[in-house]
Amino acid sequence: MVFIGSGGTGFIEPGGEGSFHVMYRIKEGENLEEVRKLAFDSKLLLLDGVDIIKEFHLYH
User: Residue 58's closest CA among 49, 45, 24, 48?
Assistant: First the structure.
């Protein structure tokens, strides 16, 4: 996979909601089931500078 880009809402007010996305280019012939497994076997980290505020596991 090759990273293409990412983006998001930007600053999120306390108690508010935001969205984000990450884009990758997947090579032809890649095992898509393995890509899906790796994508959901990960964590989303909320950071304040270098401090981790919260971790969310992205289980499918």
Answer: 45
List the structure tokens of 7. Answer: 């983006």
Confidence (pTM): 0.53
pLDDT (tens digit per residue) in 5-32: 999 988 888 888 888 888 989 989 999 9
How far from 28 is each of 2, 31, 43, 59, 60, CA to CA, in Å? 12, 9, 26, 26, 24
**CA Rg, the chain, in Å?**
14
